[in-house]
Design brief:
CATH superfamily of the largest domain: ANL, N-terminal domain
Keywords: Ligase
CATH topology of the largest domain: Rossmann fold
GO molecular function: acid-thiol ligase activity
Organism: Nocardioides antri
Number of domains: 2
Protein name: Acyl--CoA ligase
Largest sheet: 8 strands, mixed
CATH class of the largest domain: Alpha Beta
Oligomer: single chain
Number of strands: 28
Radius of gyration: 23 Å
Number of helices: 11
CATH architecture of the largest domain: 3-Layer(aba) Sandwich
Helix content: 25-40%
InterPro entries: AMP-bd_C, AMP-bd_C_sf, AMP-binding_CS, AMP-dep_synth/lig_dom, ANL_N_sf, ATP-dep_AMP-bd_enzyme
Distance between the termini: 49 Å
Structural class: alpha/beta
Shape: globular
Length: about 450
């Protein structure tokens, strides 16, 4: 990470790296901050530590500092509760957390303040041979796993990256998310500028997008649906976006069409990535799913895909070393992604996560195709399809919808039933509820599990 900051600073020491609530940071200033923190890490003998902060420039500087001295950093959720902090610190053997938060109570780990790590010292010009990084998985449910990465693998693609000077990106992911890390690496590796809001919700970033003339945004499909609704309700002209990137969830065709119609000058890309296997690259043809041609890549390709029993498997040169507490995995190992797919024509179509499948009387129902039908109904802002417990068949399909303002609830429910009428009976929603908001985690809809009642 440190080499990205230094390279951009050498090109233009005054170029702006980040715009945050606490001010604007140039690449040169961020590189200097990282080096002073690196000296502090060395003086304190910190070889492994967690980071808890919503100050994105600070998080970046700490990550860069750790990569400069070979310490293993791990970013926790900025809003983590004291109890969860203790639990995760125990799970991942963290004795020290670097944090600027003052509300952590009396945690079981030592809390080091960033100010105490700022130390002067000679230039650190030689990068260590080993530069580890620990990333926590951020699935919508369950306990996170610690994924061990190596900085050199994560930064390899940036060696040939194009110059992004003049581009202004929005950070819509949390710094603890693998997707957030990928955005940071891309922006800093191309010399672009990142607008880093303290609150990463669609309604909270609208003014920042206009104020700083953001023209590149990477976010989940769920985030994009809500952001489109905010743009529609706003009196100002929609911003002139140049790049739209979607990731973290399947991107339905109806959403891609709406994005193209709203931002005709923007390039629309979909990235398929995971904490364990890294990024498989981006698809820019504007069609949902992945090209089936990716299944035919040669054995020496950077990323290879295959389908095993309906599940997508990935092999990547940017994949993880292994999970925390486990030995390194063999190089070139295939990884099950948990994503169920189907080859339809020349596309790999996503059907949902294995954990999201609804068993309706022995029939396996995938929520995503039903969700896409419902989301395409006029007046539906976003929908969530899930299983609701049923004593006769085990579970039935249920749907929660968030509607646009002024929509007639009875008419909308009728329209949803009509939209799903030609689906097999087990796939048709038996429960339709209009709700104010959906249960989400990190701007992704939570679908897994079966609800009672």
């Amino acid at each position: 990470m440190i080499e990205l900051l230094r390279r951009a600073a050498e090109r233009d020491s005054a170029s702006v790296a980040m715009i945050a609530e606490n001010g604007t940071w140039t690449y040169a200033a961020l590189a200097d901050e990282a080096e002073t923190l690196a000296h502090g890490l060395q003086d304190a003998g910190l070889e492994r530590f967690a980071i808890v902060s919503n100050d994105i420039p600070l998080v970046v500087a700490l990550l860069a500092a750790s990569s400069l001295v070979g310490a293993e950093a791990c970013v926790y959720a900025p809003d983590i509760s004291p109890a969860e902090l203790d639990r995760q610190a125990a799970a991942f053997a963290h004795d020290v957390v670097v944090s600027d938060r003052t509300d952590l109570g009396d945690p079981s780990v030592a809390v080091v303040r960033p100010a105490d790590l700022r130390k002067a010292g000679p230039a650190l010009d030689v990068l260590p041979e080993r530069r580890p990084l620990l990333v926590l998985t951020t699935g919508s449910t369950g306990t996170p796993k610690g994924v061990r990465h190596e900085w050199s693998r994560q930064l390899a693609r940036m060696e040939s990256a194009r110059d992004g000077s003049g581009q202004v990106w929005l950070l819509a992911y949390g710094p603890q998310q693998f997707a957030g890390l990928q955005v940071l690496i891309h922006v800093l590796g191309t010399g672009a500028t990142l607008v880093a809001p303290s609150v990463r919700r669609p309604q909270a970033v609208l003014d920042l997008i206009h104020e700083h003339r953001v023209d590149h945004i990477s976010a989940t499909p769920t985030f994009w649906r809500f952001l489109l609704a905010e743009f529609r309700a706003d009196d100002r002209p929609v911003p002139e976006l140049r790049q739209i990137t979607l990731g973290g969830e399947a991107a339905p065709g109806s959403l891609l069409e709406e994005l193209r119609a709203t931002f005709p000058a923007a390039r629309v890309s979909h990235i398929y990535a995971g904490s364990e296997f890294g990024s498989t690259g981006s698809v820019r043809d504007g069609v949902d799913g992945l090209p089936a041609s990716l299944l035919e890549e040669s054995d020496d390709a950077e990323v290879s895909l295959k389908i095993v029993d309906g599940e997508l498997w990935v092999r990547s040169t940017a994949g993880m070393l292994g999970y925390h507490g486990e030995d390194d995995r063999p190089a070139g190992e295939w990884w099950p992604t948990g994503d169920l797919v189907e080859v339809v024509g020349d596309r790999i179509a996503f059907r949902g996560r294995k954990t999201d499948v609804i068993n309706v009387g022995g029939v396996k129902v995938h929520p995503l195709p039903v969700e896409e039908r419902v989301a395409a109904v006029p007046g539906v802002r976003i929908a969530r399809v899930y299983g609701r417990a049923n004593p006769l068949v085990g579970a039935v399909v249920a749907v929660d919808v968030v509607t646009d303002e002024g929509v007639d609830e009875r008419e909308l429910k009728s329209a949803v039933r009509t939209a799903c009428a030609d689906l097999p009976r087990p796939w048709q929603p038996r429960s339709i509820q209009v709700v104010q908001e959906l249960e989400m985690k990190e701007n992704k809809v939570i679908r897994g599990g079966v609800a009672e009642g």
